[in-house]
Design a protein that fits this description.
Blueprint: E1 2-8, H1 13-25, E2 33-35, H2 36-42, E3 47-61, E4 64-69, E5 74-76, E6 101-105
Parallel strand pairs: 1-6
Antiparallel strand pairs: 1-3, 2-5, 3-4
Helix pairs in contact: 1-2
């Protein structure tokens, strides 16, 4: 999930959320991280990202799910131990939906 604050001239909350969802879901498998610069590139042209940006990820592993929080505007996919399925960041894809993107437009 993400908690994001932006300044926008004409774009509404729903269009900004949709742009971020589409952008995150289009990231390639193996990117290994999601950061504020990625979010900035996803925003409509009239929207400006305000900091701080809070990112949290739920990783679905063969052995169950794990939650991690991003610090300083970056969420990094770790390499999981063999006990957690041995999944590497190169095998990780990011996915989200509208319910997981909280936006404040001001």
């Amino acid at each position: 999930s993400a908690i994001i604050s932006v300044t926008a001239q004409t774009s509404g909350t729903e269009s900004i959320r949709a742009a971020i969802v589409d952008g995150i879901n289009a990231l390639p498998v193996g990117k290994g991280y999601l950061d504020a610069q990625d979010i900035m590139r996803m925003l409509p042209s009239d929207a400006v990202l305000r900091f701080p940006v809070y990112l949290k990820g739920m990783f679905i592993l063969p052995t169950g799910s794990r939650s991690i929080s991003g610090t300083k505007g970056i969420l990094t996919a770790p390499d999981w131990s063999a006990e957690d399925g041995g999944i590497t960041s190169e095998e990780t894809a990011f996915f989200t939906d509208m319910d997981n993107i909280l936006i404040t437009v001001g």
